[in-house]
User: Fold this.
Amino acid sequence: MTLWQVCFGNYYPREVEGVYLDEAQARARAHELGPPWNVEPLYVAHSLADLPWAIAFARDRHEGQTDKSGQPFFGHPLRVLARLAPDPVLMTIGVLHDTVEDTATTIADIREAFGDRVADAVDALSRRKSDGETWNQFIQRILRNPDAIRVKLADIADNSDPRRADPSVMVDGQPLSEWQDGITRSRYEPARKLLEAALVELGIT
Assistant:
């Protein structure tokens, strides 16, 4: 089965505007955006299962949200999804990974709609800030769920991508690009090393 992604040029990692079920719809969107946006296939290993519904579900839940650069937030879970291809279960978890932490969605909602495996991973990927959970405690919880480990690595890769940091935007009194560099060095890089080491220990490549 194939999905279609609208990508910016031939750069890697891909800057993905959207993921579409219909090739014609994807090509129409790329035409609307103009060069260097183009359409590429996004292959899925086997049955799409819950993936189309998960994309629609997450798009609805993140409606109106923006990232620190002022761009639509939903681009982030779509890019995480694309990094996890071709595994449809990981792609489903990827597109849903921020729905509980950043919207009114509950783990019970995810469990009812997408089952235990997806819900358990999304739960692990949702930091419990209201309970005072620290970043390190959060990462330790993720380490107990192999699906969550792989999705968090994709999440970190996108969050630390310098192309997402508009230097004209100020965060905590500094340009977003500098803020992103600081958070990458203090949080993302140490977490990435722990997560990658856990995958090696689990024999997952």
